[in-house]
Structure formats: C-alpha cells, structure tokens
Specification:
Thiol Ester Dehydrase, Chain A; alpha+beta; 5-stranded antiparallel sheet; elongated
C-alpha cells in the first residue's frame, strides 16, 4: 500500500484523524518517552497549576499529525521532514482531538509539500497549530 504521489496531490487537499485522549494514553506516552512531568501524571500536583487538572503531553497531541501524514494523507511511504508547532490550549483526559492537514504549497521538482497542520478539540478550540514539510512517496514501478 502506497500513499499519494506528488503528481496526485493538489493545493487544498488534506485529511484528518480523531482520537479521544485517555489516561492510559498519557501514562503510556510518559513511559515510552520518560517524560513524567507531574502536570501530566500527578493529579494532586496538576490541581495546583493553571490547568487545574492533568493535561496531555503536547508532543502526544502533535503525534496525531504524524498519524494523518503517515496513514491518511499523503499516506504510507511519506517521509516527515519538518514540523513547526504552536501549543495554544491544553488537552485534558477525555478530550477528543481532531488532527488535520491541508496542502498549502507543492514543490514538484524537490518532491516536497508544505502543509498547514491543526489540532482541535471537541469544542472546536484550536489546541495546536503549525506547518509541516513532507516528501510524499514516489511512484512505484509495478512488475507486469
């Protein structure tokens, strides 16, 4: 299975992926990365912060963009080259986050596309905003 090649992509194309963030997701992410910041895993500590409760790791949320790029659009075979991010609002346990990407520029000669990246919660609040550059998969030669 191969994603869309640069010849199959137009400005304005895109895709999205939604996931409800669970407490398990946060603990698993902390275990994988080693980021045990108490704002993520200690409710007593987190209740004393500006957020008043535990929040998801920002990079956990950003990882949902990678899901879109690698599985939906352009899809399998895509190489993630660059990502700029602005974290705009906290993500709490139980929030459903929709990550979306949209092509804003195509560089055919370099096999690169620039995309607007966005994550919104179930209330439509933008929690993460940014831009990515990827190299979509190249056309595969199929044997006869």
């Amino acid at each position: 299975m191969t994603g869309k090649t640069i010849q199959e992509i137009n400005v304005g194309d895109g895709a999205s992926f939604a996931k409800t963030v669970s407490e398990t997701d946060i603990y698993l992410y902390a275990g994988i990365t080693g980021d045990f910041n108490p704002v993520h895993i200690d409710e007593c500590h987190a209740s004393q912060t500006v957020f008043k409760t535990r929040i998801a790791h920002g990079m956990l949320v950003a990882g949902l963009i990678s899901t879109v790029l690698g599985t939906r659009f352009p899809g399998p075979g895509t190489i993630y080259l660059r990502q700029e991010l602005s974290f705009l609002a906290p993500v709490r346990i139980g929030d459903t986050i929709t990550a979306s990407v949209e092509v804003i520029e195509i560089h055919t000669e370099k096999n690169r596309i620039r995309l607007k990246t966005l994550c919104k919660n179930q209330k439509g609040i933008v929690v993460l905003d940014g831009e990515a550059v990827v190299s979509p998969p190249k056309a595969q030669i199929r044997p006869n």
